[in-house]
């Protein structure tokens, strides 16, 4: 493990990405994206289609997916006092109709400010300013909040996606179930129901956890020393059935393979030091960077991440920074598509090579 007085430099996780490789639109067929396979032990890289994923799985494995559902969390409104435009991004429901939000422009939005959306269909009062300039809003409306939000809100696409999304369901996984995310668990966007059924028929167990993805997904690490970074908090849940399935898989010698860094962070948050998972719920601020010893996860299916992001650090913890940076360079040379609507990679051991 890395001692607190040591340093891991954020700059070591930087890479130069040509802008044209940032995927702006989802592919028509979810599972037709490319799949880069990185051997976490040797660093060997091979190239595939996502449909080839089954060749990396075997009977007795357990695939863990995050079944969170993205809410239309971006709202456009006005300051009631001045009529000035404001944009609100819902980050986390605190209690009732009280939300932690990101408000732009934030500088002039002080406690006591009244906001209006959809000609008064939805209104809010700013209660307080909290960590990192986020605002706590108390909403007022008639009817059901989710219905009003569905009418007024937009899908909160990341800032690097400039194209308008034609079908908002394409920013949801096919197994999305529990509403609460401000961003999609994007590794799951590659799966179709047919592919999941094929995987199950192979004897691979499929189980679900829930982690509601927050804004921290988009935020770069702003400190020079990684160890000084404060991780965002996200709500997660693991059911008894899911915990038992993962424990059974490990006990019988199978592999636990996470779909996405959110699934990884969920199960690693819930596991004890012996790698046993218990049904639980709560908030996690787990930060996984090189030196971390994984307690449960054996392999990871993930997308290509932003330079200097906490997600680059997580995949480097699993496969080694040098292996990951070389794999990313090869992905750039091979014109892989990056970020939320981009291609995928699987980080595995050498078991099936």
Structure write-up:
By secondary structure, the protein is of the alpha/beta class. The chain is built from 6 helices and 17 strands. α5 crosses α6.
Summarize the structure in short.
With 353 residues, the protein is α/β, with parallel strands linked by helices. It has helices at 145-152, 193-201, 240-251, 261-270, 310-319, 321-333, and strands spanning 34-39, 45-49, 62-66, 68-70, 74-79, 85-95, 98-104, 114-117, 122-129, 135-141, 178-181, 205-211, 234-238, 256-259, 280-284, 299-303, 344-348. The protein is globular.
Count of alpha and pi helical runs: 6
Number of domains: 2
Instruction: Give the C-level CATH assignment of the largest domain.
Output: Alpha Beta
For the largest beta-sheet, the strand count, sense and barrel status come to: 9 strands, mixed
- How far the N terminus sits from the C terminus, by CA atoms, comes to 29 Å
Question: Looking at the chains present, what oligomeric state does this protein adopt?
Answer: single chain
Question: What overall form do the CA principal axes indicate?
Answer: globular
Element pattern in H and E? EEEEEEEEEEHEHEEHEHEEHHE
List low-pLDDT spans.
Answer: none
| Main sheet: strand order | 2-1-17-16-14-3-12-13-15
Count of extended strands? 17
């Amino acid at each position: 493990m890395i001692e607190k007085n040591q340093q891991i430099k954020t700059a070591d996780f930087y890479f130069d990405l040509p802008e044209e490789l940032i995927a702006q639109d989802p592919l028509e067929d979810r599972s037709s994206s490319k799949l880069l396979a990185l051997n976490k032990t040797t660093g060997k890289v091979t190239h595939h289609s996502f449909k080839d994923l089954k060749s990396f799985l075997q009977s007795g494995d357990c695939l863990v997916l995050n079944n969170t559902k993205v809410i239309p969390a971006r709202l456009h409104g006005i300051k009631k006092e001045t009529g000035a435009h404001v944009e609100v991004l819902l980050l986390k429901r605190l209690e009732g109709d009280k939300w932690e939000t990101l408000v732009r422009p934030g500088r002039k939005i002080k406690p006591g400010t009244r906001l209006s959306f959809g000609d008064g269909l939805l209104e809010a009062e700013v209660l307080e300013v909290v960590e990192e300039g986020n605002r706590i809003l108390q909403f007022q409306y008639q009817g059901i909040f989710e219905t009003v939000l569905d009418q007024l809100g937009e899908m909160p696409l990341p800032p690097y996606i400039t194209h308008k999304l034609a079908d908002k369901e394409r920013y949801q996984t096919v197994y999305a179930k529990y509403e609460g995310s401000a961003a999609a668990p994007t590794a799951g966007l590659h799966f179709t129901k047919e592919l999941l059924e094929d995987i199950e028929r192979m004897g691979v167990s499929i189980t679900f956890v829930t982690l509601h993805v927050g804004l921290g997904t988009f935020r770069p690490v702003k400190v020079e020393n990684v160890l000084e970074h404060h991780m965002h908090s996200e709500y997660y849940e693991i059911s008894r059935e899911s915990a038992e399935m993962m424990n059974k898989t490990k006990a019988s010698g199978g592999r636990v393979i996470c779909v996405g860094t959110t699934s990884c962070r969920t199960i690693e948050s819930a596991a004890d030091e012996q790698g046993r998972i218990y049904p639980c719920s709560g908030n996690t601020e787990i930060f996984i960077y090189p030196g971390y010893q994984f307690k449960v996860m054996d392999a990871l299916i993930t997308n290509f991440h932003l330079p200097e992001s906490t997600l680059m650090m997580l995949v480097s913890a699993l496969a080694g920074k040098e292996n990951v940076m070389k794999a990313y360079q090869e992905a750039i040379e091979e014109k892989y598509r990056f970020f939320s609507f981009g291609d995928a990679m699987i980080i595995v051991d050498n078991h099936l090579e």
